[in-house]
């Protein structure tokens, strides 16, 4: 399906004349294309997109999002706001797109306002739930940006809203996902601390071994298992790696991950496109960096160039 959409874009969309402000027909065609494209695209592929390729349609999606928010029924034309926000929530995995979006006049403030509002009404309809879930993803992405983290932390209402979401006991699919993301936001903003408790150390105990935590993306499990197998042969320290998180029933328990980071001496990171595209992996790196942990990256192949955020966070700790 992705290949079909790309082929359509090459044959039709790129031949469109320059999209003028009054050329609504062409803009609607591009929105249809990009909403479908974003729904199918993997994050690592989206990170390769250039802002110059999507700026026009992104501006239009933002305009439509604002209009939908201002309407009584949350629709703009044939689209509900949840459809625009789902697309934007996919786009913010690309840091360049995210900064472009929230740098637009009043967009950051709009997202914060609607985030707080829809948290209060998100269970009333499925569309409101999707809007709220998408806004959680957007706020989570913003919380990774150092220049915006202080703004988020200074908003007491927002922090209170996120903290209440963490306490939510619903087992609904969307509720569980929002709870997981809420924890990620609070950890990024240092509102949840899961430090290891200090304990007395027996000098004759195996606990004096170097403790290594292996950090990896779920999709790289095969490569990760090969690395761990080799480590177990040649390294006599304590190797910690969680393969249970691959099971469907396993909840992404960030408290356990944070505790493992706090207790380890070294973090071995299997750095791939999947790793740098994962918000969960990114928050592990941030948590480790804030605690001055020694980080050792392992790169799969020679051609992959890591993203700037990883170099900034992990480069000085290797």
TrEMBL record:
Sequence ranges assigned to domain TIR in this UniProt record: 208-318
Entry-linked Pfam families: TIR_2 (PF13676)
Gene3D superfamilies: Toll/interleukin-1 receptor homology (TIR) domain (3.40.50.10140)
InterPro entries registered for this protein in UniProt: TIR_dom (IPR000157), Toll_tir_struct_dom_sf (IPR035897)
Alphabetized SUPFAM superfamilies for the sequence: Toll/Interleukin receptor TIR domain
GO process terms (BP): signal transduction
PANTHER family, A to Z: ARMADILLO-TYPE FOLD-RELATED (PTHR46270), TIR DOMAIN-CONTAINING PROTEIN (PTHR46270:SF2)
Name of this chain's protein: TIR domain-containing protein
Species whose genome carries this gene: Rotaria magnacalcarata
